[in-house]
Amino acid sequence: MCNDSDCGRDSENTRVNELITKHKDQPGGVLNFFREYMEKYGGLSGEIIKRAAEAFDREETEIEDLLYSCNILRHATPGLHRISVCMGTTCYLKGAMQVLKAFCGELGVSPGETTADGLFYLEVVRCLGACDFGPSVMVDNEIHPHVDPTRVASIIKSYS
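Below the sequence we write its predicted structure tokens.
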């Protein structure tokens, strides 16, 4: 039994240290650390970014820029589920605009908006890193490859 007010913080520190150790000396370790952290624990605090910057010998601003450009870090995302439609060149050429229009139609929102029920937030991103599988859509942290407009309703339904 823990009576110390820092007890919960100790277990969080341990989890963060374990993830840092796991990814520290790997190629792409910084991104992999944050992806795993987000998958397991959700949002990122400034403290986690600061600790990772120190552990990976980077500036905090460099880490934040990296996370924003890779679409990992975001300010509070409205909506329970975040739908990201890739508009990178490959996805765009393979029909991503039609996929985006289908999401807008099904959800009744434009990119950057949240559905009235608060379930979905729709956004456009420049690259999901899944170019071979375009058009690609990411819902939360799950990539949906080769999406065409006929699949949009079933993707939405699977998260409702």
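Residues 81-159 form a domain with the Glutaredoxin fold (CATH 3.40.30.10).
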